[in-house]
From TrEMBL:
The VOC domain, residue ranges: 5-123
Protein name (database record): VOC domain-containing protein
UniProt superkingdom: Bacteria
Lineage of the organism: Bacteria, Bacillati, Actinomycetota, Actinomycetes, Mycobacteriales
Gene3D superfamilies referenced in this protein's UniProt entry, alphabetically: 2,3-Dihydroxybiphenyl 1,2-Dioxygenase, domain 1
InterPro entries reported in the protein's UniProt record: Glyas_Bleomycin-R_OHBP_Dase, Glyas_Fos-R_dOase_dom, VOC_core
Pfam families: Glyoxalase
Species this protein is from: Rhodococcus erythropolis (strain PR4 / NBRC 100887)
């Protein structure tokens, strides 16, 4: 029934202006303003994600968005230089920069200003 319909994902944040700055300026994504104070993230391949403000927002405790990269080391270094702090999880084999290696694809996690978990993951 829905196999031929277009779909998109969305998530909430506490501060739409902070999200717009983070996703647009820090991560370098194309971000557009939408009606009712929302923003839309435009990703490679035509994927779009709606981001909306929610006063009682609770950050996702799981990874909501994974960015596939060719060179995870360079990407982590560039994001770190822009002020992104990478998460370190107990029991995960992560290096000093937060990159987990040797347990599936290389991956590093970080959060947006609202605390939602994102990752950069090395293309396999």
């Amino acid at each position: 029934m829905l196999a031929d319909t277009k779909a998109f994902s969305g998530f909430s944040v506490t501060d739409i202006d902070a999200a717009k700055k983070f996703y647009g300026e820090i991560l370098g994504l194309k971000v557009t303003d939408e009606d009712m104070g929302l923003i839309r993230l435009h990703l490679v391949g035509g994927t779009e994600i709606l981001v909306y403000p929610k006063p009682n927002h609770e950050a996702a405790t799981y990874t909501i968005l994974n960015f596939v990269v060719d060179d995870i080391d360079t990407t982590v270094d560039q994001l770190t230089a822009r002020g992104v702090e990478f998460l370190k999880y107990d029991g995960f084999p992560q290096d000093a920069r937060g990159i987990m290696r040797g347990n599936g694809p290389d991956i590093a996690w970080f959060t947006d200003p609202a605390g939602n978990v994102l990752s950069v993951i090395k293309e396999s």
